[in-house]
Amino acid sequence: MGTKAAGTRSVAETLESFERLVSSYGVVGTLQGATKDSGRHDTYSCHSRIGSGRAGRGVSKDQHMVCGGTSPESADVARLIAIAEAAERYAAMTPIDDDEAIRASADDLAGECLEPHRYPRCSASEYAHPRCPVVPFDSTAPIRWVRGLDPVARAPIWVPAVMASYATDATTPAERFNFPISTGYAVHTDPVEAAVRGICEVVERDSIAVLWLQRLPLKPLRPNVTTDAMAGLIEWFERRFMRVHLLDATSELGVPTVYAVGAADHDSRACRFVGAGTGRTLAEAAEKALQETVGGDEHIHGTAPLDTYEDIQGEIGETSRYMAARERAHAFDFLLGNGDGTATAGEGIRLPQDPDEALAALLDRISGAGMQVAVLDRTTQELSDVGLTAVNVVIPDLQPMSTHPWGQFKGHRRLYTAPRLMGHRVLPEEELNPWPQPFA
After folding, report:
1. Is 331 helix (H, G, I), strand (E, B) or coil?
2. How crowded is the C-beta side of 360, counted as CA atoms within 13 Å?
3. Phi, psi (5° rounding) for residue 179?
4. What is the three-state SS of 15-26?
5. What is the pLDDT of residues 78-135, one digit of tens each?
6. Which whole-number Å values give the CA distances from 143 to 109, 158, 171, in the listed order?
7. Secondary structure letter of residue 128 according to DSSP
8. Distance CA 349, CA 258 (A)
């Protein structure tokens, strides 16, 4: 999820600092001891839980958000990642304070705010559906705004509060133009690396949304794109009579991205499940995508089945459970069997390892494509005390990944320009993928 913390401190020093966040009343309410999962190629796993993320607001036992950390390196690294994942969600769920927001219309802030013509929008038919979760943006209506940074112009910029935090309270009708989701949030001990990972996640989600809606026939990774960790994770699938298809989802923005499809043909409930990842290289992106996909079948079996389309409410995980069923496995066929043995789009791309250089490269590619970027500092006092920075990256020109079947933003320009820029044909709205987004 674009979190993970490193920096110049050792793992032991960083973990000692991070564990100050763990207590019954802390950012991380509980943390299960990291154990070696021999079934996952000797990978260490750890799970953490957070509550509401809001002062004075508790949650029931079943409402705690579960986060996870896995690592082939050590139990300490898995534990560190689990804490960082929880810290990211905690920061993302922290609502906007009244004293950090202003109320104005976009017209009032013209030239000083994230430009409204870039905001994702649904199609007319989507807006007309009674279950559509969003409304068209109204540039004349007063809404809440918070300060962010335009890193290209190196200037402050006003960003709608509902884009800055997906836990914004008491939204007005005019603020319901945005579907709240965790895209773009990241934490790290290095603020620049946090911004890099936030940008990469927004690009990843753009690819996920476009490839699914436009049914892009992605090419599989060639055998030369591999690492020892990848081989071990693929072996994990094979030992369980499953296959995993790794596909190059790198867009014209040049950020290595991999989409993974797990296939368990013997499993009626978890026959198909997906994951994705970005990285400095295609191999790094593939490792992340595999980590996201491993255990996808277990997650589906650990939740109640969802067999009826009309029962989908738009909550994270619902559509992945619905699409995992064997009777809907054919919906994934457009992704499989497209290999011709040639190099793929992301194979020769490398982002610099140095965070400053990587950020400069990403901003150059995004601004060069005519897109606008905003970075918001969402660091809470608790995170700052242990040396973590939390950011939220907003790139409205990119296609949002929505898990709500009746709010897929099919009117957004990016959905129809991206395929051609990636060398694919473009489907009109009436021919877009009718199946709901399977990513969770």
Report:
1. helix
2. 6
3. -90, 115
4. HHHHHHHECCCC
5. 889 889 999 998 898 888 888 889 999 999 999 999 999 999 999 999 999 999 999 9
6. 11, 11, 9
7. H
8. 13
